[in-house]
Amino acid sequence: MKKLKKSEKSRGIIAFANNNKITDYVSIAKNSLKIAEKTLGLPTTLISLDDLNYNNTRYDIDTEQFVEWKNYDRCLAYDLSPYDETIVIDADYLILDNNLNKIFDCQWDYLLQRNNLALSTNYPYKMGANSLPYVWATVFAFRKTEKSKLFFDLISRIQKNYNYYKLLFNVDQRNFRNDYAFAMADIILNGYSIVPHSIYGTMITVDQVINSISKKDNKLIIKDNSKSFVLPVTNLHIMSKAYLQSENFLELVDGLA
Amino acid sequence: MGWHKEQRGFLTIAINSNTTDYLNLAYLQALNIKATQKIKSFAVIVDSETYKKINEDHKKAFDYIIEVSTNNYGPFGVEPQVFWLTPFKETVKLESDILLPTSIDHWWDAFRLKDIVLSTGCKNYLQEKSFSRKYRKLFDDNNLPDVYNGLMYFRFSQTATNFFKSASLIFEKWNEVKLNLLGCDEEYASTDVVYALCAKIIGEEHCTLPSCDFINFVHMKPAINDFVEQFDFTEVFVTEFFDGIVRINNINQYHPLHYYNKKFPTEEMYDYFRSVAGIN
Predict the structure, then answer these.
(1) Could you give all domains of chain B from N- to C-terminal order, each with its CATH number?
(2) In the list A33, A57, B42, B256, which could disulfide-bond A44, CB 3.0-4.6 Å?
(3) ipTM of the complex in this document
């Protein structure tokens, strides 16, 4: 008879995806989860809630216009995740190294990504000129604990009352942004203070239109229209949704997964 | 004990100007200290004009009211006299526009490691060390220690005697002293510069505590917080006060807060601290 560990907890990765008129986020998320499952060796779940009534927009770097964006379901991660310990990723986040497995060795209720480095742009680090630093909800992790439950309930409350909170926090952008709602909830929940605990390292964001990503000799080669970037094999946040629906991306997925 | 009346206590100087009622700021500070600290004796040093403004409410909050004659050494010329005027054997001297939102009783243990402790560096309102050097060019150009007199400790001792005697002399001879400082065109000596020079004279190691990097305060002067110079945080930020917690732009202020902007105190603060301190 197989001896089971008494306190073993379920652990997995989830992604949220809702299609819009120009982007098949569900297909993108399926591919990202396929890569994540292979890299981390964890089960994955895709959540798609197409009946959410909220609508938002984001700037699409491929079409250079604002497009529809359904991103209001992240606060439901706590209730919808089938796992005790969950990593949540955006559909456009590629888990290419296994460092995220190591976060489970540490004590936390939820863990956020605080640092970001984009290949072609310097993003502001605050929610507005007179505001506070924000976090990146592109990738985060949580355990099903009382504090995590409070965290997600608070995000939900901020989301519902966003017009109030964006004024309270001096946010410059008008649109709802998960990154900001997460940062506000985190500050409030930590006794109105900024804590440094973060997913280890800096998230790399490929923020320009790209043509290809390939893996060679343990390096990633990312090509845009004018340059090639050579990076160690590391997790990537890909802003070009057109690339994530391209043949080259499907080849990368097949090669990796 | 000599002229000293008590072992430990806080002291501030409140000399009203045409634009600022420092006495009222000192009154808030006294109430705040009585509400948040275990060691809470409070002394205020005032000039003769400010002394006339002292009312019955003030007398309930100030344990000691000391009148001092001003001198010709500029607006801060009386500063070194605190050593000879304090009623305490061990004194924490604060600028009058500083609040202590939480207890710093445990800091006294650290202070007692030296005869004098000057706070070093400062924090921004996010409670992080500030790296701005905008207001410290004179210090950097002259290799002076980054000390602030806004919050300092001194004990009746030979080291402190030498320190404050040196400070008095520098105030007195400022016109000669400033000729030896690079890039200094200040008409009057500022206490921070004078005390930094004194720290150099008696030795930084005798009057700073590098190992206790918490001994400083949040400074709301604009550049320290990466604000432009005209930025008025009381106008732009939501500032909250509830049950003694001061919150600026959604960040709770746990560290001593040098609010600097004299519009910051509210009646609500006076009422709250009065009530907690049991002073009616």
Answers:
(1) 6-270 (3.90.550)
(2) A33
(3) 0.85
